Amino acid sequence: MADTYTPPKVWTWDKESGGKFASINRPIAGPTHDKDLPVGTHPFQLYSLATPNGVKVTVLFEELLAAGHSDAEYDAWLINIGDGNQFGSGFVDVNPNSKIPALLDKSGPEPIRVFESGAILLHLAEKFDAFLGNTAQRAEMLSWLFWQMGSAPYLGGGFGHFYAYAPEKWQYPIDRFAMETKRQLDVLDRNLAEREFMTGDHYTIADMAIWAWYGQLALGRLYDAGEFLDVASYANVQRWAQAIDARPAVLRGRMVNRTFGEPELQLHERHDAGDFDTQTQDKIGE
Amino acid sequence: MADTYTPPKVWTWDKESGGKFASINRPIAGPTHDKDLPVGTHPFQLYSLATPNGVKVTVLFEELLAAGHSDAEYDAWLINIGDGNQFGSGFVDVNPNSKIPALLDKSGPEPIRVFESGAILLHLAEKFDAFLGNTAQRAEMLSWLFWQMGSAPYLGGGFGHFYAYAPEKWQYPIDRFAMETKRQLDVLDRNLAEREFMTGDHYTIADMAIWAWYGQLALGRLYDAGEFLDVASYANVQRWAQAIDARPAVLRGRMVNRTFGEPELQLHERHDAGDFDTQTQDKIGE
């Protein structure tokens, strides 16, 4: 990449390029192999991984269950994206975009698919009429929910890729995406200077969505970039991120489909509330 | 940028870097100057520019009016982002993220703000109960609407920036984002092989959102990249993009807040349905 170049008239695929995730990035969609998805007994079947986009949804499920919505029981199956599970035919049927998380909702008369983490959050929150905030604040909640979806690609696909995953470190893209990420943190910080949660007094799916990315970034958990982005300087984001992080449902949500980091936080699949205790005891016993 | 470098411990802002849009990209949020927004007489006040994100919303307004929703009358005010209008205090009050489009909804008991194009689309479609598709397909519609919001940053902020706007052309980021853009086009092409519109038989806000970016890309209108991305090869996207492009409301939506391209398509502000005719006659007469 180092030198300026002249692009060809028509782009072609060089399968050797692409950095850490070269093996899972392709210019074509669709399945690469036949593979059915497992289906459990609960109304909701989640196929995911504990990346920020995955954590959004498991946090919501755990918050719904903690709030007494016993109909929100779910099976969480692991999709290992490094192994290409997202390109199996069954997964592509649920999410033609081959990204986690993907949801099969069996709670109604016909099973339906829902993909994109923001859509899954809104679908579930509306189904249970929970974590939507006040009706009068619906537009504000939607604004922040969509803000997260349109903003985080600059953090993840931009900053995270070029700072942590690209084959070399280049200044221009790191500068470009670090600047935008810091601007986004400042947008949040100014909003949270005036409000307890993103849309006001109520903890909503907009908080869950934004926390999974920007809250965890502020807590130093993404890309080892806390110092580089001076995340400690966003005091209101810190206060809010820590408050959400202290919720037991959020800890459980972080554990589900987690295959990296501290062993005691890894619950590779979740099928029952008791799985968390078993997992913790197993790991502590190791 | 050309050479690999060692990032500093803490990122700092070099105001000279950034390419074509350096002057409007900042690492901090908030207003740069005091400036009230104009407010017209219609229930909806839109502050926007005819980029793809802006066009989504003006297309919806024009479709609503064409479908007989006379309560959807709107004033569309021009926000010139090259001049920094998005950093005026009035604009920041409506959208703290300083991006177009932003909406002030005066149709209810209290004026409310809505920002992020996807949130504006959903807010308006729900208010008028229009262009949402079948109730049974709501989850599918939401999935594709959120898909657009999470995907287009790779097209616009990734591919478009590095292919068209960055100060030099570098192969690695162009390859990275061209590959992802082509994958996204293929996702759409496979879906549209089986359906007239993105979610089935009904034209919805998901189509409007996706068309503004990927439809216009397929029609060769973005970044002069039609040949490079071989957009002609996505036959189903072509069929769908052309069908939507032929709708009179879509042409009107493209014209509103447009300050570039063909003069006869530029209606800098829109306050009345008659503005389109006047504009066209003025320009033809020039």
**Biggest beta-sheet profile of chain A:** 4 strands, mixed
CATH architecture of the largest domain in chain A: Up-down Bundle
Q: What does the average pLDDT of chain A come to? A: 94
How many domain units of chain A?
A: 2
**Low-pLDDT ranges of chain A:** none
- Put simply, the count of helices of chain A is 9
Largest interface, chains and sizes? A-B, 81 and 81 residues
CATH class of the largest domain in chain A: Mainly Alpha
What's the helical proportion of residues of chain A?
Answer: 40-55%
| First-last Cα distance of chain A | 45 Å
Identify the quaternary structure here. homodimer
CATH topology of the largest domain in chain A: Glutathione S-transferase Yfyf (Class Pi), Chain A, domain 2
Which class of secondary structure composition applies to the elements of chain A?
Answer: alpha+beta
Q: Encode the helix/strand succession of chain A as letters.
A: EHEHEEHHHHHHH
Radius of gyration of chain A: 19 Å
Morphology of chain A: globular
Secondary structure: number of strands of chain A? 4
Strand content of chain A: 5-15%
Strand ordering within the main sheet of chain A: 2-1-3-4
In brief:
Chain A has about 290 residues and is of the alpha+beta class. Chain A contains 9 helices and 4 strands, in the order E-H-E-H-E-E-H-H-H-H-H-H-H.
Task: Record the SSE blueprint.
The structure is a homodimer.
Chain A: E1 44-48, H1 52-66, E2 74-78, H2 89-94, E3 102-105, E4 112-115, H3 117-128, H4 138-165, H5 171-192, H6 205-218, H7 235-245, H8 248-255, H9 275-285
Parallel strand pairs in A: 1-2
Antiparallel strand pairs in A: 1-3, 3-4
Helix pairs in contact in A: 1-3, 1-6, 1-8, 4-5, 4-6, 5-7, 6-7
